[in-house]
Input
Amino acid sequence: MIQRGLLLFFMVAFLLVWPSQAQDNTANVTIHVVQRGETLYRIAQQYGLTVSDLAALNGLLDPSNIKVGQRLLVPIAGNPIPAQPLTHIVQAGETLRSIAQLYNQTIEELAARNNITDINTLYIGQVLALSNAQSPAPSPTQPQPTPIAQVAQAPAPASSANSILYVVQRGDTLFRIATRYGVTVNTLTQANSISDPTLIYAGQQIIIPAGEAPQIALDLPATISQLDVSPTLLVEGKSARIQFTSTVPMNVGGTFLDKTLNVASEESNTRHTIFVGIPVFTSAGIYPVTLVLTDANGAQTSLTLNLQIVAGGYGRESLTIGADQADLLNPNVEAAEQAVLQSVMGRFSPTRYFDGPMGLPAAASITSPFGRNRSYNGGPFDRFHSGTDFAGAPGTPVLAAASGVVVMVDRLNIRGNATIIDHGWGIYTGYWHQTEQYVSVGDIVSTGQVIGTIGSTGRVTGPHLHWELWVNGLPVDPMQWVQQPFP
Ligand SMILES: [Zn+2]
Output
């Protein structure tokens, strides 16, 4: 309220100070609070303005003399910032009907405005235009205003003080994101330790502190509540979590990407969690998750969610394997070993051992990230790096990334001395190429426990730990699980 009053005050001030520009741009102003280390030049640049414009507007005689905490008026080119949101981002559980209702529009209007011919194609994270007005605020890195940016964001988690996780999309600028959520660019740069506001990239996750969660118009079967899909935007090679509550005990089954889903049901079968892995090489697109809930009387409820999958952008690398190890590239050897891994990590244990983010498996630097498309000895790029590599001197401790049960300690041809830990709920981690292995099958390990040492056993180009993480029978990017994967 105070901020709104202040804004009004400044808008009035703006009219008085700059009447010639203000004629049809009465709302085109925002306030920038000067932060430590900022210069007027820097601020002007951030908003696509000149220093002299900014100085004139704020009555600054000496542009080099600005103070931390000082409030500057910043004009915004283009259309006025509307009081109403311009767009609605589709949340899990919403339909075109419920969204139309929320904004007092007809389904037909909303569908026509967004070129939607089949209302069942609506997907989570889709941005719907609510009016025909253009988005506000073209900004420095975006000279051509695009009508609607593709955005996606997770709903505000109840536990983390109203912050919103936003995934930057192509064409976004920090200014535009800030405007959408009613925060300043500085709030975002500080919350995310961004040193240069012009340097954000598609796919980057941005925390919007104390952001207003979007209005949600749920349209779920009566027996389902608290549906959540995290993250909203799925990425090839990464994991996602679907969670919901049923009002009565339910047995839940489902499919996604032609795979049967494993469902963990707690609280007398009313709280359901599904982890899914998205295979590397999945084409970008919209894919349905189909869930079927069966109650004690055999009555069924089904629910289909459309999820958007985008490319992982993992890049490629060519590797050369010496003649002495060439037999390890034999497809039969590879297939046999893959079958061993599948037989262990394709299972599902209903007990959950992991809790919160995973720890790193070694105090060593990452030399090769997950997902790179690979060619061996000049062959096609038809394989991918199925884990994250950590370089470490032989003998460096290998640590359990999370609590779990050791389910394999073996010596494999390609993966060398390999240990697999079952963390429950279809989540497994694998540790390859070790020298020493200190644990045995059946051991219960805890996060950070030393389970072996880094080595160079198996198909390697040097000593390192290859760390792998499987979800529902698929290897996915393990580092996602280290960085607060599902807020
Ligand atoms: Zn590796």
